[in-house]
Write a structure and sequence with these properties.
Helix content is 45%, strand content 24%. By secondary structure, the protein is an alpha+beta fold.
């Protein structure tokens, strides 16, 4: 079989990422609510808000320590998570009960809650014991930006500034 080089096609060179519109920051806010109010003001005045973005800058991870984690608290946290999971699974199995639907649904949900709480408490104790005191505190973690920038497509950025009355 002969190979005809004229019929061979080469895929186009596509090293570039599809372009997104060039945007410019027209304002910076310390609180999200203020940035939201600026977008709302643009919307109220008929500005094409689909060309606007609120961008969080300078993300910081904050882990707020909520207390000491000892064996009773580890068991309680595990029991709470296990109870919710067990009740949900019991409720789902109860939905499949055709003989006595309501009683079966509630009974399986309660059995699931109790069984899940016991298993969860045991797992909570086991995990706490296996950590060997390395992380014996409870915490809540959140990620939040320090500032929020109002970004507008370059083509309409000046219009946005005028619409908001910031061009003075």
């Amino acid at each position: 079989m002969s190979h005809d080089p004229a019929r061979v096609t080469v895929p186009p060179d596509r090293n570039e990422v599809p372009s997104t519109p060039s945007r410019r920051s027209i304002a910076s806010f310390r609180h999200y609510g203020a940035a939201e109010q600026a977008v709302d003001a643009l919307s109220d005045r008929g500005f094409p808000v689909h060309r606007v973005a609120i961008v969080g800058r300078d993300l910081e991870l904050v882990e707020q320590v909520t207390g000491r984690l000892d064996y009773p608290r580890a068991a309680l946290r595990g029991a709470a998570g296990g109870a919710v999971t067990g009740a949900l699974i019991g409720w789902l199995f109860g939905l499949l009960s055709w003989i006595v639907p309501l009683v079966g649904l509630l009974l399986l949900a309660v059995y699931g809650l109790v069984f899940g709480a016991v298993v969860g408490a045991l797992l909570g104790l086991l995990v706490h014991a296996l950590q060997g005191g390395r992380r014996d505190f409870a915490s809540a973690t959140a990620m939040r930006p320090r500032t929020y920038e109002l970004m507008v497509d370059e083509e309409v950025a000046d219009d946005a500034v005028r619409t908001l009355g910031w061009d003075r």
